[in-house]
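Appendix C reproduces, verbatim, an entry submitted by the partner laboratory led by Prof. M.T., so that reviewers can inspect both the input and the predicted structure.
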Amino acid sequence: MAYTLKLPPPLPKEGWKVKIRDRERLEPPHVTIFHKARIWRVSLRDGAFLEKGDAWSQIDRCVREAIEENWKLLVREWDKLYPRNPVESGGDDDG
């Protein structure tokens, strides 16, 4: 089941959504930002955009702030949905 971050008004009425989508278990951990028909995907591991050319300047400042304020929650929700592909991957340790 997908997770949708609750955004403050009037962002939803303006067409903004932030979700962790279903069926993305093989993808790098990320959150998807929607504005009407446009989407951006942001890595939950390093905050970088997954598609070249995407930038925070294309996204409403309040949407970005909501994501930043809820980053830990988004990480927890990703890990809950995809426990075999957690944000904190095992490939980053030294040993």
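The chain has one domain: 3-85. Additional entries are available on request from the coordinating office.
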